[in-house]
Amino acid sequence: MNIFLRSYLHVGLAALGLLLLASCASNANNGPYNVSSEGGDIRLMLNGFDPVAYQVSSKHIRGLATIKAEHDGVTYRFENEANKETFLKEPDRFAPEYGGFCANGIIYGIPWGGDGDTWKIINGKLYIFGGQQSKNYFVMAEAANLKLADQYWQAEVKASAALFQRYKRLIFRVPHYQSGSQLEAEFKQSSTTKQ
């Protein structure tokens, strides 16, 4: 084997090992969550949006850093004390599905992205998307995509280290994978068909 090829192979394997260790360390306790860090909240869900407001007010509203609660190792912020109490009574009702990752990514087994300002309530549950296009692509075949996302979340993503899972599925694509351009063409076709 060529010495340069062997060197690249060793570097690649070492990088993969470090990536795996880093992703496992970041996911040591509570499954993958799409968290950010702000102020003293280092595992902040929904970029600080109030999880109850989505359903109660039908809006995405920023929570206050002074009104917060922890659930399953992550921090949620709330607009008011009433929303905080509502959340604490039924956290699984208000916490976002798929750890707050983009629901459209989860149909491909890829925990990535998810913005608290792009969302939809489906069957009484909060789903987050990585932007309006991701939401459009997801809802154009909503029932089928929910089924796929639930399947991949349970089988692969839920108990995984998110970073490792992401790179695994970016390299080893699911059989039904579609690129952004393929999804956009399908979306345009479905939009013209509905008119």
Determine the N-to-C terminus distance. Answer: 60 Å
Q: How large, in whole angstroms, is the Cα Rg?
A: 19 Å
Number of domains: 2
Average of the residue pLDDT scores: 87
Q: What is the multimeric organization of the chains shown?
A: single chain
Global shape: globular
Low-confidence stretches: 7-30
- Secondary-structure element series: HEEHEEHHHEEHHHH
Which percent range describes the beta-strand content? Answer: 15-25%
Largest sheet: 2 strands, antiparallel
What does this structure look like?
The chain is α+β, with helices and mostly antiparallel strands and 195 residues long. It has two domains: 59 residues, no CATH class; 89 residues, no CATH class. Helix content is 48%, strand content 18%. A two-stranded antiparallel ribbon has the order 1-2. The chain has a two-stranded antiparallel sheet with strand order 3-4. Strands 5-6 form a two-stranded antiparallel ribbon. Strand 5 and strand 6 form a beta hairpin. The longest helix has 24 residues. The termini are far apart. About 12% of the residues have low confidence.
Short overview:
With 195 residues, the protein is α+β, with helices and mostly antiparallel strands.
Layout of helices and strands:
Elements: H1 3-26, E1 35-38, E2 41-45, H2 53-56, E3 64-71, E4 74-78, H3 81-89, H4 91-94, H5 103-106, E5 115-122, E6 125-129, H6 132-139, H7 142-157, H8 162-171, H9 180-194
Antiparallel strand pairs: 1-2, 3-4, 5-6
Annotation keywords:
195 residues; alpha+beta; 2 domains; two-stranded antiparallel ribbon
